[in-house]
Amino acid sequence: MTEATRAIVFSRGDDHLLGILSLPRAAGTTGVVIAVGGPQYRAGSHRQFVLLARHLAAGGFPVLRFDYRGMGDSAGEPRNFQQVDDDIGAAIEALQANCPDITRVVLWGLCDAASSALLYWHRRRDPRLAGLCLLNPWVRSETTLARAQIKHYYGQRLLQPEFWKKLLRGGVPVGKAVAGLAEKLAQSFRPASRESGPELGFQERMAIALAEFPGAVLVILSERDHTAKEFLEYAAMTPRLATALDRPNLRRADIAGADHTFSSAAWRGEVERTTLDWLNSLRSPA
User: Fold this and answer.
1) How far apart are CA 228 and CA 247, in angstroms?
2) Structural domain boundaries of the chain?
3) How much is the pTM?
4) Is 160 exposed, middle or buried (0-12, 13-18, 19+ CB in 10 A)?
5) Would you give the end-to-end CA distance of the chain in angstroms?
6) What is the Cα 9 distance to its own chain's centre?
7) What does the pLDDT look like over 185-212, one tens digit per residue?
8) What is the radius of gyration, based on Cα positions, of the chain?
9) pLDDT tens for residues 161-187?
10) Under CATH, what is the fold of the domain 2-140+199-283?
11) Are 98 and 183 in contact (CB under 8 A)?
């Protein structure tokens, strides 16, 4: 059972950040930091992070969910998902300060928070990180979006009798539809992740992190989510990432029928149970 839930305030530079700490009655040495995808605050869509934190704490794991600087109740200037390393590091320190027995930390993130978790490890190589829980990781580029749309939208659309009936009735502007498909096909052949100049794109840095992370990884993907489909498209065209997804330290779970934010109680419950089962395997390795 959960012993307590309390607010804590911690600092990064001159800015104060607010977090909510969920504590179990008895804890081990592993804690969880929930990184928040943006722009949103520590409760999450449909209060998912609140419910998740309580579930994991009831299972014996201290959990800290917090607002990045410039979001929710935290001070400072807003930052995007590639600029939150200091915030994540401060949250890990705050978790350990409030739970002195914690020596191993798991980062849990949905969408671009999953990306932030990988980018944090890529840049910091933080030895306290024992695990990464990544849900529908964000790898958006013109190429991945175009490939996902061609495969999962245009492909399905062409198989729908309603589309052809509408086309024959003149309800579909053929020229516009063909031009749109041609544009998506052209975009699908462009490089997917190189940023301007010699810098690696964030997607490439994510792939490197996943390939080199020495701890345990849980990847949870929604069946009906284009972000998840883009992630798989990017993996299919990135050998390093495809190989990383087959590493023995990585477990993958697909949530049937789920949307991007796991908006039903059933989908959220499956995420909670899957996450807790995986955390227990870290605490008591097979």
Assistant:
1) 19
2) 2-140+199-283, 144-188
3) 0.82
4) exposed
5) 25
6) 24
7) 444 455 555 544 457 899 999 999 999 9
8) 20
9) 765 556 566 665 655 544 444 454 444
10) Rossmann fold (3.40.50)
11) no
